[in-house]
Design brief:
297 residues, alpha/beta, Spore Coat Polysaccharide Biosynthesis Protein SpsA, Chain A, nine-stranded mixed sheet, two-stranded antiparallel ribbon, 11 helices, 34% helix, 24% strand, globular, binds uridine 5'-triphosphate
């Protein structure tokens, strides 16, 4: 008998409608997702990560003041013509590349009512498929592939899969936290989730970071999720409903390099680290940085 084939996920949703208050005043007129990490907007790294994991249908959830995101991922005929005329083929290729990376779609959230609400805006686009959610300000170092591991877990276990990071206990209040049972060294089955718990009440120091593979049942769960922490509709609360109903929700414990580019300190770390490692800038920048740290520059 012919077996039904389950297609690997191919759609990614990037919520980018948040207000970016932690990075004001820079983010008053510029979306935080477009802040440059060296010379490339933070969100381009995320789109590249999606594409290299086979997710090349991308829906960005945007809001007011975020139109520049769509411009960045569009073609720019005038700019391309000017670079072509100057014979600047390197920059021409870079400009074209961001317009050709993936099939990009955009929808507006209207009111930033929370991450859960942003994900719910993707329901008509996603339909009845498992899909990825990748936060627009959460940068995973390309040398530490996380999505590929999550896709393998989802294919083996079904249901939904989230990325987890062990954080110091006093920082868990900044994240969603999970209660879980271990499956293997890097995999847990999640039994409960709490958004931004008080450290004394946190179920663990395993924090949810910005990569999710979600079963389409998340949409019904989100429709029934009332506003939670901060008066926002929380994705964590909808995932808790799935986990409690017995649907598989697994967590992959990530031990690689990750930066929250919506946080100023982490943003600076990302810029310095990626600049040091760039073939075109790294040697000069490292030399200057060594002098600077030694107080000689
Ligand atoms: P954050 O809380 O990190 O984003 O939300 P924020 O609200 O923009 O940032 P701060 O805290 O004010 O500095 C996590 C992700 O969810 C998106 C954000 O854009 C970010 O990628 N988000 C959040 C939405 O798309 N819509 C919302 O209503 C809320």
């Amino acid at each position: 008998m012919a077996q039904a084939t389950v297609r690997a996920p191919r759609k990614a949703v990037i919520p980018a409608a948040g207000l970016g208050t932690r990075f004001l005043p820079a983010t008053k007129a510029v979306p935080k997702e477009l802040l440059p990490v060296v010379d490339t907007p933070a969100m381009q790294y995320i789109v590249e990560e999606a594409v290299s994991a086979g997710l090349d249908e991308i829906l960005v959830i945007t809001g007011r003041g975020k139109d520049a995101i769509a411009d960045h991922f569009d073609r720019s005929p005038e700019l391309e013509a000017a670079l072509e005329q100057k014979g600047d083929l390197g920059r021409l290729a870079a400009v074209r590349r961001s317009g050709e990376l993936a099939s990009m779609h955009f929808v507006r959230q209207g009111n930033p009512l929370g991450l859960g609400h942003a994900v719910l805006c993707a329901a008509p686009y996603v339909g009845d498929e498992t899909f990825a959610v990748m936060l627009g300000d959460d940068l995973i170092d390309s040398r530490d592939p996380l999505l590929a591991t999550m896709l393998k877990v989802q294919s083996d276990q079904g249901g939904s899969v989230v990325a987890l990071l062990e954080v110091p206990p006093d920082q868990i209040a900044l994240y969603g936290a999970v209660a879980s049972t271990p499956v293997s060294e890097e995999l847990v089955r999640i039994t409960d989730l709490v958004e931004k718990p008080d450290p004394a009440e946190a179920p663990s120091n395993l924090a949810i970071i910005g990569r999710y593979l979600l079963a389409p049942s998340i949409f019904d769960a989100l429709r029934e999720t009332p506003p939670g922490r901060g008066g926002e509709i929380q994705l964590t609360d909808a995932l808790r409903a799935l986990a409690r109903s017995g649907e598989p929700v697994h967590g992959v414990v990530f031990r690689g390099r990750r930066y929250d580019t919506g946080d100023r300190l982490d943003y600076l770390r990302a810029v310095v680290r990626l600049a040091c490692e760039r073939a075109d800038l790294g040697a000069d920048f490292r030399a200057w940085l060594t002098e600077f740290v030694a107080g000689r520059s």
